[in-house]
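Appendix B. Chain record.
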Amino acid sequence: MPEQEQKPARKSAMVGVVGRTNAGKSTVVNLMVGEKVSIVSPVEQTTRNTIRGIVEDPRGQLVLLDTPGLHKAVGPLGKLLNGMARASSAGVDILLVVFDAAHEPQMEDAGWMARVVRERPGKTVFALNKCDRAPFFETMFRDAWKEAMQKCEQPFPEPRWVTCCGIRKGGCDALLDALYELAEHGPALFPEDVVTDYPRKLAIADVVREKLIQRLRDEVPHEVGVAVKDIAEDRKRGWEVAVTIYVNRPSQKGIVIGPRGSLLKAVRQSSEPELSDMFGVKVRLELWVKVEPNWMKNSRLLAEMGYLGATR
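Structure tokens predicted for this chain:
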């Protein structure tokens, strides 16, 4: 009787993806997962929750924790997001720090390096993102790391350095190779056909907020909150989703609605096809704009938006 071919041992790892805001963390995560699990825009603080993206590969499974970007916090929500970013770096198997190497190192980049030196995580990868840009400041980032290491009293293993491009097909292959090399042999943490365990209410709210961000300018995107109030499911008609968009001031309400409702209509029309494709059902949105002064200090609303604990 022929011997059964032995399958290679698979690996698994929980990877904390951190870095300053706008470093391209969500773009890198989406490319590695192979699907859009985290919203992307050039506006700072786009990612406001910790989102799990799951990479399934013959080598094993990587669970990527995409986090809010570390930034100079303004107000209670900014401080909350920074706290979430810092907390997500603890207790992971691998820490992946994404740097925007198309720009010189910033204060927040040095802060993450100092945190690595201080907390000494077992396995760390430094990803120098946007290697398709010129100039590319790899040398300055390596020099910044040397400076951070001068404050380290004991020998410390060098992080794995990788250059990558989150917007180019294959641009993160070397990064995936590095993560799998560092991962340990072990069972998968999620079923093989799952790409994210992000609650659907938060996923829907994120897509709507992404479309709003793409159309709003200046300070308004930072003062907009989105909460899914209800999902009415019908086997034939699909999902009817009630969404409330919160703003701080009455003047912002008119901006979000747009002339004769044009901006809100554009947001709905661009969101619905993406959500229908994401969930495999017809999704129709009902969007409402509500003025809620200081909503960023309202613990009930923050919890509903997933900032104080996820909701399904």
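Further analysis of this model is presented in Appendix C.
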